[in-house]
Amino acid sequence: MPCRRRLPQVTAADLRSGRYRALTAQISADAERYVLQYLQNLEQQGLALTLWPPHCLVGSPGANLNAELAGALQRWETRRLTPIDVIEKGLNIWTENFSALKAVIPYPAMPIPI
Asked: Which of 35, 59, 64, 87 is deepest in the core (most CB within 10 A)?
């Protein structure tokens, strides 16, 4: 069943005012500054950070390819004798992971996977 409630969105002002706190403050002041800059960069693109409930967690069925796609990829590999390259997403806690190809705000130390 689809989620019908509006998901909370966090802005730089929310972080500055204390409405939301980044757990990064426990890591370092640099990490805290990075999160604030990240939120500001999203806002410059007309976006905000959405707080999603846990979903598609690594190791869960939601993170897997669906059976139809997995079967099609297997047949492609067999016909061409070439393995596919699987690009995993969600492995970088410092940026959003809507796309496996490129983050909206790429993390400077993270290479683009292509």
From this structure: 35
